[in-house]
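User: Can you help me understand a structure? I only have the sequence.
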Amino acid sequence: MPSLAGTIPAPSSMAPATRLDAVSNQRALDQFLRGVERRALRMAELGCGSRDDALDMVQDAMCGFVRHYAEKPAAEWAPLFYRVLDSRLNDYRRRRTVRSRWLAVFDRAPDGEDSDLDPVAQAPDLQEPGPLMRLAGGEAGQALEAALKALPLRQRQAFLLRLWEGFDVATTAQVMHCSEGSVKTHLSRALAALRRALEDHQ
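Assistant: Let's start by predicting it. Here is the structure, written out as tokens:
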């Protein structure tokens, strides 16, 4: 994924000290984006099932984040970035739902019944396993990936933000635009579903 370096150039009319601050901020921003891009891509892949769509989504989220939040304190960048990415994932899901409804009219099974194939389950297997998959390894890793894909979006987001990114409940709620109680509920249901799906690998 190309770096977003240079997207916030310091105006040449700035005073030298101000230009130094802008250059320092640009470096910190580039480092932050490089630090989150792999995990963000993995999160997007799990959400949409397509590496190409995920790349576009993360790139769009990075551009939106830079455009709106680059001047915020660096300590606030992580939750703000994941809020932007969460918004892009929700938009993608809404568009896919609308598109699926329209396509369902034309995509009937041969016997006249609606096809019950899950488009996420039919997505191609992803080659890059990511941190969670590398920890689990082998068949367990594939089972974990399948279980994560099978989770509802909000449960998957709560799981990844809390346990993968390490955000606390309050920050996760801020990213997901929901209450802290909802985060706890989504996470509890995600953990229960993952335990059931992975009980053969425990």
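Now, to help you interpret it: Residues 11 and 19 are 7 Å apart (CA to CA). Residues 17-114 form one domain. Let me know which part you'd like to focus on.
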